[in-house]
Amino acid sequence: MTFDGIPLFGNGPLRTIREPIGEQLTPRAALGIPGGGLVAAGPLDFAITFTGRLITDTPAQLQELIESITGAFVSPPGKGELVDEQGNAWSAISFVRFEPLGPFERGRVCSLAFKAKFVNLRE
Question: Partners of 105 in the beta sheet?
Answer without folding.
Answer: 111
